[in-house]
Each structure stands twice: as C-alpha cells, then as structure tokens.
Design goal:
Helix 7 crosses helix 8 and helix 11 runs parallel beside helix 12. This protein is globular. It has 13 helices and 7 strands. It has a 7-stranded mixed β-sheet with strand order 3-2-1-4-5-7-6, with helices on both faces.
C-alpha cells in the first residue's frame, strides 16, 4: 500500500523521514532501481547507525541523516534537491525502541525510565516527570492519554516523585495499574506510557511542523504518505490533508484511511493499529 501510494519510479528522489531500521527505504530503493535515491532521516542516532549499515549495499543511492523529519528542508538544501517525488513517515516508535528494554519505552520489562528517541538530547522521562508541574502533567494526561480522571494519576506520580520512587518502567507501570482503567486488549500502562513518550519527544509538535512545511518540499506530481497509529497522530494528518485538497493544488489519494490486511497483521502484530493516508501534489495543466 505504501509503495502504491508513493508511486515509486526509477530515478525518483524520495525521503523516508522516520528511517528506523530502513524497511520502507529499502523497499523504495528496490522499486526505484537502478537510479532512484532515498534520503533517510531519523532522530535516533543509534538506530540510524544500524540503518546505515543495513542499506550499505545501495551505495550512494541511500543517504542517512540524523535529525527530525520536521527539518527535512535543511538536508534537501545540502543535497541541492529543489524538491522530492515522495515522502513517507511511519510515526511513533520503531521496533528497536520496544525490543530494547534499556530504552524505557515498554512497561513489559523493568528498565530505566528514559523514552527519548535521541538519548543524546533533552530530558529523559524520569527527569521530565521530576520537573513538570501538576498543571502541565494534567494537561498531558488529558490530551495525550485521553484520561478522563487525571487527578488520581497526577497525585500518584507526584507522590512517587516526592518519595524518589519513580525511577523505572516498572514503577510507572505500577502507578498505571493502581490509578487507570485498562481494557481486554490494552494494559492500563499503554495510554500513560504513550502520553509521557509523546510529551518527552514533542512528537505532535514535530508532526504539526512537518505538515506546515511539507508543501515546500514536494514537487508537482509528488506524494506524501503518512502512517499513524492512534487518533492523536491521525487527526492532524487528516485535517491537514483536507485543507490542502480544498485549495485545489493537492489531491487526497486515500479517500478512506487504509488499514493493513489480515495477512500483514498475522505477520506483524504491531501493524494492527496502523492507518495510512496519502496525498499527491497536482501537476499544473
């Protein structure tokens, strides 16, 4: 679905703005052979090194840069690319973040409470929770965890911080179990970890910046494909695409959100909540 939406062609120039381990970049490089090129960008310097090694067989057709997809324009200037034929974003965490317990993204295993995409920059989740005040923490829980009764959660977090008892993913998961409702399919920590991760990495701010700036980076006929995993990510994408299409210069390719089929979800359980949207810049007549 992603390759269809990008309409990959030989000789094209593409950006994978959330490179991860390079799965999308590899597929685009193969489909754009022999001379298509891909710029891969990722905020995580450690993951970027793995992707660079994995894409080494493509030589200078694959270029890897450390940074945010909201700042793609700087890399395009460096490469002397006026615009590109396609951009793909696969939002949220990558498998490496979830599988490496030391990164602190998962409540399934005990680990330091970090959650940063780039461990060389900014505050860890633990440092953020120790610094943030009650008002901001409440706002984060309401906005990013969609928690209807945040006061109890906030009190528990503040008390754990006061007692210096909020240091690991297990500590935070215990608070979630004690103060939040789960469901048959989701641990109560899912929403709490999501909310804190989004806040620590400023994920929605980065997405909003990208949606404002991408119009300057895509050539006529070029396409933007975004895969989101929850409504907080999907809603601004949907709204931005509708605004662009209303101006007549862009056309929405995914009239309805595209979800993975049963074969894909069987192969990759983590894809089950994925939502793909795509838009194309019209070619002037």
């Amino acid at each position: 679905e992603c390759l269809w939406a990008l309409a990959v062609k030989p000789g094209g120039r593409y950006v994978d703005g959330t490179l991860g381990l390079g799965g999308h970049a590899r597929a685009v490089l193969e489909a754009s052979a022999p001379d298509g090129r891909v710029l891969g960008v990722d905020r995580d310097a450690e993951v970027l090194q793995l992707a660079r090694a994995g894409l080494g067989e493509f030589g200078d057709r694959a270029m890897c840069r450390h940074g945010s997809y909201a700042e793609i324009g700087h890399a395009l200037v460096d490469l002397a690319w006026a615009a590109v034929d396609g951009i793909v974003l696969d939002l949220g965490v990558c498998s490496v973040h979830l599988d490496d317990a030391a990164r602190g993204f998962s409540f399934a295993r005990e680990a330091p409470l970090d959650m940063r995409f780039d461990r060389g920059l900014g505050e860890s989740a633990r440092a953020w929770l120790e610094r943030v005040d009650e008002r901001e923490l409440t706002e984060v829980l309401v906005a990013f965890a969609e928690e209807r009764r945040p006061a109890r959660v906030v009190r528990a977090i503040r008390e754990a911080v006061r007692r210096k008892a909020l240091n690991t993913t297990g500590d935070l998961a215990d608070i979630a179990r004690a103060t939040m409702r789960g469901s048959r399919t989701h641990h109560p920590g899912t929403r709490l970890f999501q909310a804190i991760r989004i806040a620590v990495n400023r994920e929605l701010d980065e997405l909003r910046l990208f949606l404002e700036r991408m119009v300057d980076w895509v050539s006529p006929g070029g396409r933007v494909v975004i895969i989101a995993y929850h409504s907080l990510e999907d809603r601004p994408v949907k709204e931005a695409f509708r605004r662009l299409a209303s101006g007549g210069e862009w056309e929405i390719l995914s009239k309805k959100v595209i979800r993975p089929g049963p074969d894909e979800t069987r192969r990759n359980r983590r894809s089950r909540s994925a939502r793909l949207r795509a838009i194309a810049r019209r070619v002037a007549s």
